[in-house]
């Protein structure tokens, strides 16, 4: 029988209890917004760590926007992850791909400015980078995020989530140095089923969370 977290804050506190025991060197909590922000805030608080964002945008296939052509990950050097099979089957040209990437990079810039109000990003070089979300289903977004994060040369890359299916975590094992997950229900259903309160996190919520979490970097 798997427990249901009361809300994302409780999940973050329980996750933080596990992370504190690991005594990471120079940790930074990196939230996947929007749902990961309240979870990461609790972790940042417990670890006395700075908090930043990992913004990932899906690149939709021209004419089929719901079909993921790839993903764009924010960073000093934005990482582009392309699904070559989808690109080949859809016949996406270089020009169309470049245009789609530019649109998503612009949206990432817009969201970062909105959420952080010009606040400088936290460098991850030689730090323990802890990527946080409120749960994982397929892992596609997280995979893109950690690929992008590797470019920042963190000393260690940790994935921390309250709940995820074990097969998804198995596929992510080679992408990170460590995975901390509180429960892996089988069979796994939607992430929201493992929370009593899973109301959407608004843009305003994310802005508020980051305004309250401004430790020195």
Provide a brief overview of the structure:
By secondary structure, the protein is α/β, with parallel strands linked by helices. It contains seven helices and eight strands. β6 (128-132), α5 and β7 form a beta-alpha-beta unit.
Explained architecture:
- With 217 residues, this protein is of the alpha/beta class.
- It has helices spanning 8-20, 36-47, 84-90, 94-116, 140-150, 166-172, 203-212, and strands at residues 27-31, 51-53, 56-61, 64-73, 79-82, 128-132, 156-163, 178-183.
- The strands form 2 sheets. Strands 2-1-6-7-8 form a 5-stranded parallel sheet, with helices on both faces.
- α1 runs parallel beside α2.
Strand arrangement across the biggest beta sheet: 2-1-6-7-8
Rg from Cα: 17 Å
The share of residues in helices is 25-40%
- The secondary-structure element order is HEHEEEEHHEHEHEH
Mean pLDDT: 90
Number of strand segments: 8
Distance between the termini: 40 Å
Briefly note the structural class of the backbone.
Answer: alpha/beta
Summarize the biggest pleated sheet: 5 strands, parallel
Q: In what range is the share of β-strand residues?
A: 15-25%
Principal-axis shape = globular
Any low-confidence stretches, pLDDT <50, length ≥5?
none
Give me the number of helical elements: 7
Keywords:
single chain, 217 residues, alpha/beta, 5-stranded parallel beta sheet, 3-stranded antiparallel beta sheet, 8 strands, globular
